Amino acid sequence: AIMATLGFHTSVTIDDVSVEGITKITADDIAAATAEHKVIKLLAVVENSEAGVSARVYPALIDESHPLASVHGSFNAVFVKAEAADDLMFYGRGAGGAPTAS
What we know:
Elements: H1 2-8, E1 17-19, H2 27-35, E2 38-49, E3 52-63, E4 75-82, E5 86-93, H3 97-101
């Protein structure tokens, strides 16, 4: 909600975000994704359309060649599709006291 608010200069609260966790992902889901050269990642996606800004968190199936597929462990990434700059990715440690505070 914070990044959606900052990124799109609008008010987005946690109540506006649709959330689906990873608890329903099974070993069979992971095996099927691997067989298709894909990975399952928990994504937070914010989109701006004529209807307004929407935000959701959900497990997504992405190609193993996508830059977000290489994000593991305590690392986080923000992937931005920008009209003028094309695709941008910001990547770094995001878990633990020092990385979170920096």
